[in-house]
Design a protein that fits this description.
Shape: globular
Structural class: alpha+beta
Distance between the termini: 20 Å
Oligomer: single chain
Largest sheet: 8 strands, mixed
Order of helices and strands: EHHHEEEHEHEEE
Helix content: 25-40%
Strand content: 25-35%
Radius of gyration: 15 Å
Amino acid sequence: MNVLVRTAEPADFAAVASLTTAVYLADGLVSGPEDAYLAVLGDVRRRAEVAELLVAEDPSRPGGLWGAVSLSVAGGELAEVAGEGEAEFRMLAVAPERRGHGVGEALVRECLRRASSAGRRRVVISCQSHLHTAMRLYRRLGFVRAPERDWEPVPGVKLWVFAGELPAQRDGEHNI
């Protein structure tokens, strides 16, 4: 399946909000419809203001979003675990009917490419421990567990941190 990853535009915001909140609810990543984190996920305009908001779609049928992710750098409003010289992606969501078709991988690879192009040396991600499919993808792309960085955004929700080293860049060269 061919996947186009691009920067989200304001016309995409409602679809990104709908997709992300639906995925987080359906996958049990939030406690339920009253969970305050849904408002954060749904505030796509703000996400796009403070981070890079990327979307994935079918290049032959623009407008039908298959996935989305936010990419931030250390010190950015959305960065929760990124340190100096690092980027962090968050809020990765892929439509259930598109899972297993490379959409999540395309979004993560674009995060890696953009972080590398921005001169970052590492990309980090927080992941709930039961998301085995996501963890397999991260490991396949070179991420390793960084258990010393695990954290709890709210009591009882422990997030595992994974870190992916980016290749050193030579002048003008952009890998990944």
